[in-house]
Protein: Oxidoreductase
Organism: Fodinibacter luteus
Amino acid sequence: MLAVRNTAAGEAAAERIRATGAPGSVAVESLDLASLESVRSLAARFDGPLDLLVNNAGVMSPPRRRETADGFELQFGTNHLGHFALTGLLLPHLLRTPAPRVTTVSSIAHRRGDGAVCEGNPAQGYDPQTSYGRSKLANLLFASELQRRATASTAPLTSTAAHPGVSATNLVASPDGLGSIPVVGTLGQWGVRLLFPGPDRGAEAVLYAATVAEPGSYTGPTGLGETRGPVGEAGRSRWAQDEALAARLWERSEELTGVTYRF
């Protein structure tokens, strides 16, 4: 299942998958992680067991602060709270399988995040890069805390995290982020394509994390400051290793989304 905001693009991707002749079926569902109503709607429509959930949506560094449909800062709301709510609401389906796995995509930019991650990127002092870094730090803290809580409850769930390094996708050119700056939207994507690997290489760390990586692990490229190269263990900032901060973020996320995890 491809759960996407742009269903036309999702259907095009689904057709490319079907054209490979791989076994199985591909479905496309509408999901806007910037809307808790949309998240709840998808979770309510989902039926059956769920073996693997890959949390891989994102918006990067809009120059001016924007908000989700629920009033959260756009990056914190989309990149973290949307995934937190979706995973929690789908947890009963995950626990119906013998070895469920959740993989959450973070970024080397998580190093820009800090102990203020629980504040949700308030309007006062908004900085695009710091706010993005906090949202990706939240991804990594969430993945680690999910593994700790699953282990404590003896649930069979495995939680992993990964980052793609720097990959030539349309993230830079997206009008929801840096692409809202005209020159970046026009030229940024071409510059990234010239300098960095394509999305197929960027996906390698995510695929590894989604299939064979150890519980609680963080995977990414290991060359050139983790921007590219062979897949291996990724580095974490000191904030990303702070278990007390992860627990506080979890509790705050439950308050903001109204979603409680029941293992």
The first strand starts at residue 2 and ends at 4. The mean pLDDT is 91. Helices lie at 7-19, 36-45, 74-94, 128-152, 182-195, 199-211, 243-257. Residues 167 and 196 are 6 Å apart (CA to CA).
